[in-house]
Amino acid sequence: MASFNISVLKRLLGLAYLIIFVAGCSIRVKTTYNHQTDFKKYKTFCWLEGCEFRMNAPRHFNDSLIKSLMQQAIIAEMKAKGIEYNSNTPDLLMDVHVSIKTDTAILWHRTDDQPFLMRPQFAQPEELIVNKGTLIIDLADKAKGQMVWRSVAVSFFEKNPELTEENFRKGVAAALKNFPPKK
Fold this sequence. Notes:
Layout: H1 2-25, E1 27-33, E2 44-47, E3 55-56, H2 64-80, E4 84-85, E5 92-107, E6 126-141, E7 146-157, H3 165-175
Parallel strand pairs: 2-4, 2-5, 3-5
Antiparallel strand pairs: 1-7, 5-6, 6-7
Helix pairs in contact: 2-3
């Protein structure tokens, strides 16, 4: 009975570790921008290629519903920042890239009934499959024809994530959190 409880406890601790690992990673964002650019002048934006929304993404991600959710999330987030979508006279042109790769997390469990030592003995590792998603958003000044801002947001998530409007909004909000940059 005790070995069953220890085994169950190990699995629960492994699951808790994975949850902490995934939550701890949450969404990491790095931004780069032209420091000479006055971002206050931008009031409108559109998509890079003829103001038609295109998203460079894996084939299984190029679904019309997924594209629509991403497009709506971006438009809503930019509007919240005071920059309206305008296909006639955009100040900024936006390009969107999505990358999803399968990754493996390794969990090591202590062996049963092992006293705590400075160097504890470990049993076989447990492999957990997770996805690593990257969202890249580029913004270019239409008049100058120059890129002025880039965001790279990276997150780990479960193998089959929920593709909800809320999740897309959360990812896009994180990617655009530091836009426009504050001097």
